[in-house]
Specification:
With 444 residues, this protein is an alpha/beta fold. 38% of the residues lie in helices and 15% in strands. The strands form 2 sheets. The chain has a 10-stranded mixed sheet with strand order 1-2-6-3-7-8-9-12-11-10, sandwiched between helices. Strands 4-5 form a two-stranded antiparallel sheet. The protein binds 2-acetamido-2-deoxy-beta-D-glucopyranose (3 copies). Belongs to the peptidase S10 family.
Length: 444
């Protein structure tokens, strides 16, 4: 669909008739079209399939067959990876208007292929044959996702050996370890050439993380001592319900706690203390419900897009408070893991992640915990964040960003993911433990 505004304008003024039809300009210029999009059948659930969009690397530095492939998973549970695609890290985004795609200066597909998957089935444009087929635990999530990834690799010749990095945010703090654990444990010689896992502002070890809210907001000056006690009480309710394995009720209690936190602080959103309004995922909803969008992405026109599926959220509610920390412990012995958090997030931020890292059963933990935290500077010399790395584990605190790190800090987030994948910059510094004397030398 080519639109030539001047010609159309000219014709309509010349003839002054309605017979010249002036189409609105397309939302998707050719440059904004994904390389591929469509559906990946999920064999363990016949009739179900996952929707995906794929963007090939813009400036790959290696033959495509060796070029890393990043997979992005949204959280929720139940939210669509199209949020990541069109509002966070994809090459074209809607940031202020649902009908205007803007090129992203920090797109994550500069050097790497980028695959967004609506996971699990029932989310976004993905199709669940029935509610019974929607995964109820992380094992099922991983099985389905693995089937979809294998399908994608098989559909695309030349993808067999591409290094795969699974990335995601928020509730994908469950999905990312789950798929990593499944591949490394059960399909170590399978089709997915897994090379690393990255989690942004993740929920991974909920009981530990939930117990940091009160103290975090208290020492940030957002609540007083009395309110802190009240929050602690709300936290204990959820923890007690977990202890008695009332998973659904425990998840509800966590929601209560977060509502209370929102009420007390009065913030526009707990996802970013600096924002005056919530993140605009509504723009993604409006964009994806346009007829043109469905047409170019290969989606049936009759489908209605929701940013988050209540049905999937309901099915996975039993899973919310369950920890996958043991999966991170297993995977970090076998592949590299990046945990990054925007520092302005009050839901799954830095403090809440550090708290569970400290409790990991990992032979290298002591070394990690005593490793130096380095200041990360951006191109202008400002503080972009902080990087701590030992062996296979990297932790990054991203300055000036909330829950949606790539939305708030597009270029910095891109620099981070590229540095981590390629082992460059602060991620390339040798893990040499400073001895007492070298520490002394440094201080001279
Ligand atoms: C939060 O505030 C709303 C509106 O004032 C109120 O209806 C709700 O009960 C409060 N929730 C909690 C958990 O305090
Ligand atoms: C789109 O979905 C409708 C309703 O499910 C169905 O009747 C129709 O055949 C589908 N169209 C295509 C092109 O698949
Ligand atoms: C770190 O991951 C690599 C693979 O990238 C693996 O071979 C190695 O055993 C892991 N190292 C440790 C100390 O766990």
């Amino acid at each position: 669909m080519e639109y030539v505004p001047t010609l159309c304008f000219l014709l309509s003024t010349l003839f002054l008739t309605a017979s010249v039809e002036c189409q609105p300009p397309p939302i998707f210029p050719d440059a904004a079209l994904p390389t591929k999009s469509g559906y990946l059948p999920v064999k363990p659930a016949p009739g179900s399939s996952m929707f995906y969009t794929f963007y090939e690397a813009q400036n790959p530095t290696s033959p495509l067959a060796d070029t890393p492939l990043l997979v992005w998973l949204q959280g929720g549970p139940g939210c669509s990876s199209m949020i990541g695609n069109f509002y966070e890290l994809g090459p074209w985004r809607v940031l202020s208007s649902a009908t205007e795609l803007e090129s992203n200066p920090g797109a994550w597909n500069r050097l790497f292929g980028l695959l967004f998957v609506d996971n699990p089935i029932g989310v976004g444009f993905s199709i669940a044959a029935s509610k019974q087929d929607i995964p109820r635990n992380q094992r099922q999530v991983a099985e389905h996702l693995h089937a979809a990834l294998v399908e994608f690799i098989e559909q695309n010749p030349g993808f067999e050996h591409r290094p795969v990095y699974i990335t995601g945010e928020s509730y994908a703090g469950k999905y990312v370890p789950a798929i990593g654990y499944y591949i490394l444990k059960e399909k170590p010689n399978g089709k997915v050439n897994l090379k690393g896992l990255a989690i942004g502002n993740g929920l991974t070890d909920p009981v530990t993380q939930l117990q940091t809210h009160a103290v975090n907001v208290y020492y940030s000056g957002l609540v007083n001592a009395k309110q802190r006690k009240e929050l602690e009480k709300a936290q204990e309710i959820s923890v007690a319900l977990v202890k008695s394995q009332k998973w659904r009720e425990a998840a509800d209690a966590r929601t209560e706690l977060l509502t209370l936190l929102g009420n007390m602080t009065g913030l526009a959103t707990l996802y970013n203390t600096a924002r005056a309004i919530p993140y605009r995922t509504d723009l993604v909803v409006d964009l994806l419900n346009q007829r043109e969008t469905k047409l170019v992405l290969g989606v049936n026109e009759t489908m209605r897009f929701e940013d988050c599926s209540d049905e999937v959220e309901d099915v996975l509610r039993e899973d919310v408070m369950k920890s996958v920390k043991f999966m991170v412990e297993y995977t970090v012995e076998r592949t590299k893991v990046l945990l990054y958090q925007g520092m302005l997030d009050l839901r799954d931020g830095v403090v809440s992640t550090e708290e569970w890292i400290k409790t990991m059963k990992w032979s290298e933990l002591e070394m990690f915990l005593t490793a130096e935290r380095r200041v990360w500077k951006d191109a202008d010399g400002g503080v972009a964040g902080y990087v701590q790395k030992w062996g296979n584990l990297s932790h990054v605190a991203v300055a000036g960003a909330g829950h949606f790190v790539p939305t708030d800090k597009d270029v910095n987030s891109r620099d981070m993911i590229e540095g981590w994948v390629l082992g460059k910059g602060l991620f390339g510094i040798e893990d040499v433990k400073p001895t007492i004397s070298s520490r002394f030398m440094e201080s001279l």
